[in-house]
Structures
1.
Amino acid sequence: MARQKPHPATVFRNLFNGPGLIRGINIYDPITARLAQQCGFQVIALGGYQQGSALCVPEPTLTMTRKH
């Protein structure tokens, strides 16, 4: 019987609770995700600005309503 792959949240939790720093990088699209994986980064992040710039839309923070 094949061993089940652990849930991504479990993998991240184990990294977070482990010793040392977590090596991570922001990505923009599937190509940069694959490059980050091949370079050995342990985690990746896709932020709103990265996604917006990849889709050629205005910076997402400019469209948010600000309350002071």
Note: The longest strand covers residues 24-26.
2.
Amino acid sequence: MFRVTGSNIDNVEIIIFDRWDGTYKKSPCQQSDYFDMIKRKGKKTGNIKYQKGTVTLLR
């Protein structure tokens, strides 16, 4: 589950690189860390900011 909170956020786009739903070709992925990137757009200024991180898949 993802939750992005903050003030003055107009739009949020979350991109997870590699096997988002925990499967690949209908087979379970290994428990591991996967990279993600969040793109957010400011309400007042329209500035776009990126934040990189990881998602940990637990079974």
Note: The mean pLDDT is 78.
3.
Amino acid sequence: MAGEKDKAKGVVKETVGKATGNERIEAEGKADRAKGEVKGAAHDVKESAKGVRDSIKND
């Protein structure tokens, strides 16, 4: 779920920007989407690290 809000907001802004010809809003949407992707990837790495830590701890 990490970053989903930013990705959704980005898609909306990007769509509105394209529909209205507003390049600034479209660019903001792309940036928000990218921010959401990064947050999601960071969350995945964090969860993987927890899994590794837990498996080492249980050995």
Note: Residues 4-57 form one domain.
